[in-house]
Prior knowledge:
The protein has one domain: Sandwich (Jelly Rolls). 28% of the residues lie in helices and 15% in strands. The chain has helices at residues 16-31, 49-58, 69-84, 126-129, 160-166, 169-179, 252-259, 307-310, 327-347, 357-362, 370-375; strands spanning 36-37, 60-63, 111-114, 148-153, 184-193, 201-204, 223-228, 238-240, 268-269, 277-281, 286-288, 297-305. The strands form two sheets. An eight-stranded mixed sheet has the order 1-2-10-7-12-5-4-3. Strands 6-11-8-9 form a four-stranded antiparallel sheet. Helix 3 (69-84) packs across helix 5 and helix 5 (160-166) crosses helix 9 (327-347).
Amino acid sequence: MNIQDKANPVDYGPERAEMAAYLKAGEAKAYALGNRGPIRYDANGSVAQDILDAYWRCGFYVFEGVLGADELGDIEADIQDVLSRLPKDKGAPLDAQGRPALGADCEAPTLFWSKPLGDPFGGTDLANGRHPTKMTEPTPAQGAPDDVVYLILGSLQFSEACLRTYGHPDLLAVAAAMNGDDFVPFTDALFIKEPGLGASVAWHQDGTTLWDSPTWDQGSHGFNFMGQLYGCTPANGVWVVPGSHKQGQVDIKAMVAEAGSERLLDAVPMVCAPGDVVISNRQALHGSFANTSTDWRVTLNMGFHRRGSVLGAAGGGIHSAPAVYDTARIKERSRIIGYAIDARRQRFPNETPFAYKPFEDTGARHSWDDAAKASMKDYNLLDLSI
């Protein structure tokens, strides 16, 4: 059964009409921004300058049609396998079929749970308190489970298809254009927003360590790619306040108070078709509402940093244990890029693989084989979280 066949629709109760109007208006504003289209290159083979300009103006860009039908099919098959291997209940060591549950033997943080349509981070001290206000938590339909998985970290160890997407030559070319040829990884994740169950993510800005740095600028905390398996709508997608990545740390509580609710006045949704990939600045103010719609959202999050932002920096302790990041750690974490490039080469031999400059400069070679697969376990213990 296709996972999209299963839906648990609900609505926002007395605020249903207001929410519907907000979603519609936000979508219109999003399409007026001029920050969407296919990945394009100039005559020199560089990512087109107008794409870079639009990204830095808005803080995000929707790349259309990046992932083709074959790749989406591979990802969907892996996602169905991942979902079938989740613990039968929160904390259970086995899945519904009696097999060892996904992530049960991992040391690194892996599965994040929420009450259906809940907001597990908003208004708490979790994640360094970067989600200061709570989102509305609609009432799920009768019979909903007690808890649902909405976030899976270290996702590349569970899905070879996701690893291959991580090595997509056009996406890595964009990463080099944004963060320099010596860009480095951040972290990777799967967001699962099931219809009628998917949790919200309260308004926040990513990044913890460089806000007060004398060299801080609009790109200091890197970006995330967000690949969309089924696309995303105003109702189930991420919303962002355009331009907020340039403003430093904003007063989220004041913005919510001004709006009179969590429906921030200047926010717009990232609206995508299946196969689109958004690039989103981590400093931009963003969040998502509980998924009361009838549509699934499955998002492949893949983050990257500037090497200069990471080398010698003290880790923020959100995605991995606090540490000062040295050359050896960056090199070890970056091997995943090499594995991804080779895994993709094996699946799509007619593509020209991306040439990652740090590997080209040192002659490093990474083969995607059984030994590499075994080495992926808990790779996210080495995430470069700033």
